[in-house]
Design brief:
The protein has about 150 residues and is an alpha+beta fold. It has 6 helices and 8 strands; from the N terminus they run βαββαααααβββββ.
């Protein structure tokens, strides 16, 4: 269940707080194929299950950028922000993909708010550490330092 906040003051109070874990999401071949079509990245390790079985991962894997993009819908499971005019994805400080995500695996997002600071234009900048876990794996699929801005 998402934490719900209203307005910038409640966002400021999230600094240093863990937001928990999203639900598990299964990575299907259909999702990988759709992402390949959207990005024109049809490398065989992603879209050719038969050939990928013989490859280095033993089967097809999700694109790293697919894993990264899934942080957006998974994050909405963790935090519901009301009472702001606009929220934007301001950027990333660091992104790593320590482990591939095999098709058929399940992933989830863990989020920790590292800081919330005021910015010009009646807003706050929220820095967070995101970790995408793979069910049953000791190594995460993705770790990223992300920055959002919210304006009242």
């Amino acid at each position: 269940m998402a934490i719900s906040v209203t307005g910038l003051e409640e966002l400021r109070r999230l600094s240093g707080r863990d937001l928990g874990a999203s639900d598990w999401l299964e990575i299907t071949q259909a999702r990988v194929n759709t992402f390949a079509d959207a990005t024109d990245d049809h490398q065989w390790i992603h879209v050719d299950p038969e050939r990928a079985k013989l490859g280095p991962f033993g089967g097809p894997i999700a694109h790293g950028y697919l894993t990264l993009s899934l942080m957006i819908p998974l994050f909405t499971e963790l935090l519901d922000i009301q009472g702001v005019k606009m929220s934007i994805n301001y950027g990333l400080e660091k992104v790593r993909f320590p482990s591939p995500v095999l098709v058929g695996s399940k992933v989830r997002l863990l989020a920790h708010v590292t800081s919330v600071e005021d910015v010009k234009g009646n807003g706050v900048q929220m820095a967070m550490n995101f970790t995408v876990e793979i069910d049953g794996s000791d190594k995460p699929a993705c770790v990223a330092q992300v920055i959002y801005r919210h304006y009242a």
